[in-house]
Amino acid sequence: MAETATPHDAVFKTFLSCADTARDFISLHLPTQLLRLCKLETLRLESGSFIENDLRPYYSDIIYSLKTTTGRGYVHVLIEHQSTPDKHMAFRLLRYTVAAMQRQLYTSPFPLVDITVIPDDEIMQHRSMAALTLVQKHIRQRDMALLQDKLASLFILGHTSGQQITVLINYLMQAGQAQDVQKLLYGLAQRVPQHGEKLMTMAEQLRKEGIQEGKLAATQDIAKAMLERGIDSDIITEITGLSHDELQQLRH
User: Which ranges carry the Transposase (putative) YhgA-like domain (predicted)?
Assistant: First the structure.
């Protein structure tokens, strides 16, 4: 059901929907420093209102788009139909401004960089962003060894710092689906001498963590088998070194 316009709203919008009247109104009331930026001959009425329904008896608004000296811009005119000032007016104006900006952002085309369709050879030319972009593009790839040659070439160029390489490898391990990051690190360490020690250290750390994880998994299998045989939990913790909380988790 359409809402009935108030007398204030009706007369205001009837007048200011006329482009010539709107230009006169803006010329009279817009601050001079802002008026200099506006090309009023390009003024165009935009649809929509950002006034809440319960405030429409007191306020009317209208929006125009226009070209400015720096690009496209908007003029949001808010008319107050009350005789006493509102201490929250500045805050309300801010809300309306943000609402107008939000509509512009979510209803207008915006530039999108889809790295999944950018050829790897083109990404390789992105200097200090190349390594990150390349890994992000292929982060779901299971065999990251296929990127070894390209990453090695990028690291050798020196556009990626040691700290960035460390963070990049950690990102690859945490967010990616690579099966053998350790193999990738060993390969990179051999081909990128300036970062060889760092890469080798990370590979060795992964190897040790893998051994520890393997030992823990074997210990958990033994403890689970002992639990299934009904062996007392105190005995199991003494033999395996697992805590009672860890045993409790194995029971589920």
Answer: 6-104
Q: How far apart are CA 145 and CA 155, in angstroms?
A: 15
Contact indicator for 139, 172 with CB cutoff of 8 Å = yes
Report the amino acid identity of residue 79. Answer: I
Supply 98's token pair: 């943000």
State whether residue 69 is helix, strand or coil. Answer: coil
Q: What is the pLDDT of residues 188-223, one digit of tens each?
A: 888 898 888 888 888 777 776 665 666 667 778 778
162 residue type, one letter: G
Could you tell me the CA-to-CA distances from 36 to 20, 51, 73, 177, 205 in Å, in that order? 18, 28, 13, 56, 63
Residue 87 backbone phi and psi in degrees, to 5: -65, -15
Residue 20's φ and ψ, nearest 5 degrees, are -65, -40
What is the residue extent of each domain of the chain? Answer: 7-107, 115-245
pLDDT digits (tens, 9 = 90+) for 77-99: 877 766 677 777 777 777 777 77
> 79 and 107 in contact (C-beta within 8 Å)?
no
Helices 181-191 and 162-175: angle between axes, nearest 10 degrees = 160
What's 141's DSSP letter? -
| Alpha helix (H) residue ranges in 108-195 | 120-123, 130-137, 148-157, 162-175, 181-191
Token digits for 152?
């090695």
Torsion angle of C-alpha atoms 22, 28, 29, 35, degrees rounded to 10: 90
- Angstrom distance (rounded) from CA 199 to CA 187: 9
DSSP 133: H
